[in-house]
Design a protein that fits this description.
alpha+beta; three-stranded antiparallel sheet; 6 strands; 31% helix; zinc ion binding; transcription cis-regulatory region binding; transcription regulation; DNA-binding transcription factor activity
């Protein structure tokens, strides 16, 4: 994934502070999602938890990141594709949680649409598949 944190921040009218750039850089580094504990481990020396939390929330609100909960209830973050924007934040692809390496992948597979019963408004629907990923299957 080729991501330029500075231009993404600009696009979303966010001031590019050093910390914001670092967080985005770290998340965009890998094509798989990164877990919050891993982020804290990697950035702990530069960014305190509260600030990190705030940055992650802003990014979610702006449609820059999306959050995926893994099977242990840990939050993972991945950069959104261009289909997300501030007023139309959706995450319509399927996620894959490998039960072997515990990584979360954003799959380029469209999530099934679920029809909500009358009176229910779904804001986020997440589709997550569990199993063995490509890399682990190859071993
Ligand atoms: Zn795996
Ligand atoms: Zn995703």
């Amino acid at each position: 994934m080729n991501i330029n944190p500075v231009s993404i921040l600009k696009e979303h009218d966010l001031k590019h502070t050093k910390q914001r750039v670092r967080v985005l850089e770290e998340i965009a580094l890998d094509s798989v999602a990164i877990s919050q504990p891993d982020l804290e481990k990697k950035l702990g020396k530069e960014i305190d938890r509260v600030t990190l939390y705030r940055i992650l929330n802003t990014y979610q609100e702006k449609g820059i990141l999306h959050r995926i909960m893994d099977m242990n209830g840990t939050a993972n973050y991945a950069v959104c594709t261009s289909s997300c924007s501030e007023d139309h934040h959706h995450d319509e692809h399927v996620h894959f949680n490998c039960t072997n390496c515990n990584k979360i992948y954003c799959l380029e597979v469209e999530a099934p649409r679920i029809k909500m019963p009358k009176g229910f408004t779904a804001k986020t629907v997440s589709s997550i598949a569990y199993g063995i990923c490509e890399k682990c299957n190859a071993i």
